[in-house]
Amino acid sequence: MSFAQDLRAAGISMTTWRVLHTLWHTGPLRLIQLAEKGNFDISTLSRVISDLETRGFVRRAESRRGRRPSVELSPMGYACIESLLPAAVKLESKALAALSPGERLILVELLHKLDQRTGAARVPEAWPMESHLPRE
After folding, report:
1. If you compute the radius of gyration of the chain from its CA atoms, what whole number of angstroms results?
2. Measured between alpha carbons, how far is 21 from 115 in angstroms, rounded to an integer?
3. Where are the domains of the chain?
4. How many C-beta atoms lie closer than 10 Å to residue 95's C-beta?
């Protein structure tokens, strides 16, 4: 089964996966922080979060010091991520297999460099899954 099929079977879209994965990677975030970390359009993100909250995947947590509430994964959201993570890692590994370990590190460095300079690459902080990067 492909990762896209796994997502469909779980009833979530790729955008929803990206939101859940970003929250899994970072922990609770305010909406604007989540938009920045995952490179999401704020209006799209707002709709996705509302849907995820209704479906029980995320919850809004009151923040300290009167700030806007943050969004965090619910136990159901964690369970969803944990069930799909093996397929996501397999897809990422397959995509990166064409590159040598050194090329993988260079790719990440170059994408971050482009992002810092222009914002054109817009590399989400949760990519690639750091635990799967080769160590030289």
Report:
1. 16
2. 20
3. 3-132
4. 10
Could you identify the residue written with the tokens 């995947």? Answer: 57
pLDDT digits (tens, 9 = 90+) for 47-68: 999 999 999 999 998 766 666 7
Query: In which element (H, E) is residue 61 found?
Result: strand 58-61
Q: Containing H/E element for 91? A: helix 75-96
Say what the pTM is.
Answer: 0.78
Show the tokens assigned to 84: 């799909």
The pair of structure tokens assigned to 41 is 């359009």
Note whether 53 and 59 are within 8 A (CB): yes
Q: Encoding tokens for residue 22?
A: 């970003």
Low-confidence ranges of the chain (pLDDT < 50): 130-136
Can you name the CATH fold of 3-132? Answer: Arc Repressor Mutant, subunit A (1.10.10)
